[in-house]
Structures are given as C-alpha cells and as structure tokens.
Design goal:
Elements (H helix, E strand, L loop, with lengths): L6 E9 L9 E6 L4 E8 L4 H17 L8 H20 L9 E10 L2 E7 L3 E6 L2 E4 L6 H7 L5 H6 L19 E6 L5 E5 L1 H4 L4 H8 L5 H14 L6 E9 L1
Antiparallel strand pairs: 1-10, 2-3, 3-4, 4-5, 5-8, 6-7, 6-9, 9-10
Helix pairs in contact: 1-2
C-alpha cells in the first residue's frame, strides 16, 4: 500500500530584482488550509502592486475561511472569480488604475488531492522522482504560438511579443482559469513562481537546485539569487511546497 501524505511544508522568497523600481509580485500561503498563491501584477504607477495584493488577499481570505464541507476546487473557482471582480471594480475607481491586472498561480491541497490553478504566465511545477515537470500552461501570446506549432522555443525567447499575456485577473469583467487536478505523493515538491524566475533560469537549472538536500527557504533563496545573477530583469518570486509522509 502506498504511503500517504501526512502533511505539507512551505517557504517563499520574493525580490524586486535588479532592474525594476518596485516589486509588483505578491504571494500568500496557509499550510493549515492547503492554500498557496503567487501573483505578478501589471499596470502603471503602483497599479501592479495593488492588483497582485488584492488578488492574493482575496484568495487567502476566502479559502482560509471556507466551509470544510464544500469541495475545495469549487471554492477556489469562486475565489478566482471574486478576486477578478475586486480588481476590475477597483480599476474603475481611478484613472491611474485603469487596465491594471495580475497573473495568478495557485496550489490547493487536501490530503492527497491537489489542484493547480493559473491565469497568465506565472507557472506551477512539480518535482517528482528528481524530474521537474511544468504543470500549468502559459497564457501568453508566444507560448500559445509555440503550442500551435507556429513558433519554436528559441523564436519565442527572441520575440518582441514575449511579454504579451492573453489572460489576466482584473482586466476584464470575467476570466476563466485553467485547473489541473493532481494526486500528491510523499516527496513531491511543488514550485509556484512568477516569470521573473523562469525568464532568467532554465528548467534544467531549476531542477538541479531542487534536487539539492536543502531546507525549503534556502532553495527558494538560491533560485532567486541565481535569477538576479542572470540579470534580474523582473521581479522574482519563488514559493515551494513539499508533500511529506
């Protein structure tokens, strides 16, 4: 009989990077409630910071106070819709906030059951048996072109449109997230991150760091430091979650 997951452990690090004047990333997590969220805001002035913070706050508020009798994934879909509505309505209150939005990637776990939810190009990964796998699909113009076979990975990296995302929270009155169902096993390591990490570091490099026998906070710090060493062109956030027996 397979060993069951008994509990989870988590850590996160966020950094402004070397080029941006402020940090528009935000994260939140509750190990007790099985909720983990990373957001990467966008918009003029401080609008990106506001959008990402609103999304994280709304997700955490709703999913840490939920009725345990309801399916977690249903509550999560409602939380994403609520976060979208909060940002969209707030953007209508000020000309400076008009058009603000944020990406979102979230991991939700309940015993062995798990779900990854994403909107935009912040990513969710799973490391299992020393192999790193990207679970989420980027909602970006170039990645969608790659998936359709109209562009290869190298062309995508060089494209002037690589920053264009096709789905975000708060930019429209409604949004549809992607949801990926997971079955957790002891030893699984999940990573949620903003594109400031994955634009600077290759998947093989990330995998090599996650293979190290290090505490989660140190692995987060190493990845963020490596992204800064590689240029740090954007804000960088890394959130790691480990399933333990």
């Amino acid at each position: 009989m397979a060993t069951a997951v008994a509990h989870y452990a988590a850590a996160a690090v966020t950094d402004r990077g070397r080029k941006r004047p402020s940090n528009e990333d935000a994260f939140g997590f509750s190990v007790e409630n099985g909720v983990y969220v990373v957001c990467d805001g966008m918009g003029g002035a401080a609008a990106g910071e506001i959008a990402s913070s609103l999304a994280v706050d709304e997700m955490m508020r709703l999913l840490t106070s939920r009725d345990a009798g309801r399916p977690l994934v249903n509550d999560a879909e409602e939380a994403v819709a609520s976060a979208n509505a909060v940002i969209f309505m707030r953007a209508q209150t000020s000309e400076n906030l008009n058009g603000m939005g944020t990406t979102l990637v979230s991991l939700l776990v309940e015993d062995q059951s798990g779900w990854m939810i994403n909107v935009g190009d912040s990513r969710g990964y799973r490391m299992r048996n020393s192999h790193l796998e990207q679970i989420t699909l980027d909602h970006s113009l170039v990645e969608e072109q790659v998936r359709m076979g109209r562009m290869d990975k190298q062309e995508a990296l060089r494209s002037p449109f690589k920053n264009v995302i096709t789905r975000a929270l708060g930019t429209q009155s409604s949004v549809t997230p992607d949801i990926f169902e997971l079955e957790a096993e002891p030893g699984d390591l999940y990573m949620l991150c903003s594109d400031g990490l994955t634009r600077e570091l290759s998947d093989p490099f990330i995998e090599s760091v996650l293979k190290l026998d290090l505490p989660l906070p140190e692995m987060c710090a190493r990845l963020v430091a490596a992204a800064n060493d590689a240029g740090g062109h954007d804000n960088i956030t890394c959130l790691l979650v480990r399933a333990e027996a």
